[in-house]
Write a structure and sequence with these properties.
- This protein is α/β, with parallel strands linked by helices.
- The protein folds into 2 domains: 3-279, Rossmann fold (3-Layer(aba) Sandwich); 287-423 and 472-490 and 502-540, Rossmann fold (3-Layer(aba) Sandwich).
- It is 37% helix and 22% strand.
- The protein is built from 19 helices and 23 strands.
- A 9-stranded mixed sheet has the order 13-12-14-15-23-22-21-18-19, sandwiched between helices. Strands 5-2-6-1-7-10-11 form a 7-stranded parallel sheet, sandwiched between helices.
- The structure holds glutamine (GLN).
- Residues 359-361, 387-388, 391, 411, 469-472 line the site of glutamine.
Length: 541
């Protein structure tokens, strides 16, 4: 038995299709089924690694090094599972595999036509994911909105699959309902009716409509959508805004969504176990005392629009750890550049319980971030550095403690005589050949933790595995000097002898990692480093 649930979007994008798909996966898993989840992005980029996160949101990284859409992060958080390359595809990656097969005579001399080859390739990939994850049900999110050119071949894949196995395929349309009227609560159903017609035009009909709106959908309008769009009674589900995305699966179940979807596929719930999830949501709601975390970055000048999507995993990791420690997370975006223009303003960091310098690329804001790190080190403010946040902490330490005044990174100072952060030889070759796509140090690598460190207290383990996405590393030529002056190397990569985690002595909490711990934080399993950082921040308060 294999079943497919496709999630497509209507009216407009950005209304939470990824959260809807993740939540559907969550409730089916709770009903006792093994679920795999796939995301299809309609763009030609082969993966998300070459896209600017301030425009497209965070680049999420899987264990196997796949650089993908942030929705894969939602899937991992909502399903509490690790996914791999096969769970993510783009127009570019699908075409690439068809073209590669054609070049290898894989189509036996036939003319390779867009239809059916591209949709069939999509179906093959979905089946492969089902097999690899030994899953009963695949939840597949189709990016974009129905009615546009871009995702037409993916919808054709749904049509092909559904025409062959009507009883095994369900299509959920996540549609947006604008609110009008004096009270702003009169939901308009007409755009949804048009979205359903767009689906009809490509030979598809939704089995369920998820009505995304600011407010709940009233019975009268539910009935109207059912009648006008030929949706079976009860299969229009109200999906109003909620305060936390983790509430969405619980909300869906108020409408008995898992039962309805399963019955559409000829299945019944095997069990119902949302206890742990409900407890987590309850804990998030009952946390009243705040913990104030400042994130220092380059696009955060006051008044600048902070694209929270570009740091979604960091934000979620903070939330998971705060709730675990029974605190309400308050996140503040602090502009690194303001510390360059007005060095005195770095004192504002005292207002926060803990400071994070997250991942980053390029020179802008670097000196301001280094000033912030110096302040945290001296003023004993809990600090957590994520990737770039480790590299800049090492530079700060080299400059101000080891007195290597010109210490820098080859990334933003290519001619430095003191490259305490340097590019690996194999990375250098890739850069000179302009091979940027999928070539950073990516995905999971082993890290050996030194006993007696804060990292060991956090992990309670000497060998861990964490996800990477960077080109530069701590330069081992400077390691002795750094350690002699008190820098603790708390974690190393055993194969390459690379610095993975640094810490400081005599500080309530100062730790930074070359990897991105945020990618492995889950609501039901907060990341150890975030957990300890938040704990220290609370103590600080
Ligand atoms: N720019 C740095 C590098 O490439 C850090 C990358 C990051 O923070 N993810 O090594």
């Amino acid at each position: 038995m294999t079943k497919y649930i496709f999630v497509a979007g209507g009216v407009m994008s950005g209304v939470g299709k990824g959260i809807a798909a993740s939540s559907i996966g969550n409730i089916l898993q709770a009903a006792g089924y093994r679920v795999t989840a796939l995301k299809i992005d309609p763009y030609v980029n082969v993966d998300a690694g070459t896209m600017n996160p301030t425009e497209h949101g965070e680049v999420f990284v899987l264990d196997d090094g796949t650089e993908c859409d942030q929705d894969m992060g939602n899937y991992e958080r909502f399903l509490n599972r690790d996914f791999s390359r096969i769970n993510y595809m783009t127009t570019g990656s699908v075409y690439l595999s068809v073209i590669q097969r054609e070049r290898a005579m894989g189509y036996g001399g036939k003319q390779v036509e867009v239809v059916p080859r591209i949709p069939l390739e999509v179906i093959d990939k979905i089946n492969l994911a089902l097999k690899k994850d030994k899953a009963d049900i695949a939840v597949v999110e189709i990016g974009g909105t129905v009615g546009e050119y871009e995702n037409i071949l993916f919808l054709e894949a749904v049509r092909m699959l559904k025409i062959k196995n009507p009883q095994d395929v369900a299509l959920v349309l996540v549609s947006f309902l604008p609110a009008l009227g004096a009270g702003g609560d009169e939901l308009k159903t007409k755009p949804t009716q048009h979205a359903v017609r767009s689906l009809n035009a490509v030979g598809l009909h939704p089995d369920m409509v998820l009505a995304r709106a600011a407010v709940p959908l009233d019975e009268k309008r539910k009935a109207k959508i059912e009648f006008m769009c030929s949706i079976p009674k009860g299969y229009v589900i109200s999906a109003p805004n909620v305060s936390s995305v983790y509430e969405v699966p619980i909300n869906f179940e108020k409408d008995k969504m898992s039962e309805k979807l399963l019955s559409r596929l000829g299945l019944k719930a095997k069990n119902k176990d949302m206890r742990e999830w409900r407890q987590m949501v309850l804990a998030s709601k009952s946390a009243k005392l705040p913990v104030k975390i400042g994130i220092v970055g380059k696009y955060f000048a006051t008044g600048d629009f902070v694209l929270e999507d570009s740091y979604i995993s960091v934000i979620e990791a903070i939330k998971h750890a705060a709730w675990f420690n029974k605190r309400k997370p308050e996140i503040y975006w602090l502009s690194a550049e303001s510390y360059e223009n007005n060095p005195n303003s770095v004192k504002e960091l005292k207002r926060y319980d803990g400071i994070i310098v997250p991942g980053g690329f390029g020179a802008r804001g670097v000196e301001g971030k280094i000033k912030a790190i110096e302040f945290c080190r001296k003023q004993k403010i809990p600090y957590l550095g994520l990737c770039f946040g480790l590299q800049l902490a090492v530079i700060e330490f080299a400059r101000n403690v080891c007195k290597i005044r010109d210490a820098s990174s080859r990334e933003f100072n290519p001619r430095t005589d003191f490259p305490v952060i340097d590019v690996m030889p194999e990375q250098k070759a890739l850069l000179s050949e302009k091979k940027y796509g999928g070539t950073m140090r990516l995905g999971s690598y082993k890290c050996v933790i030194k006993k007696g460190t804060k990292s060991y207290t956090a992990y309670k383990n000497t060998v861990v595995s964490e996800r990477h996405r960077h080109r530069y590393e701590v330069n081992n030529d400077f390691r002795d000097e750094l350690e002699k002056n008190g820098l603790i190397v708390a974690g190393i990569n055993p194969e390459r002898d690379l610095v993975e985690i640094i810490e400081l002595k005599n500080h309530p909490f100062f730790a930074a990692s070359q990897f991105h711990p945020e990618f492995k934080s889950r609501p039901l399993r907060p990341h150890p480093l975030f957990r300890e950082f938040i704990k220290a921040s609370i103590k600080q308060r």
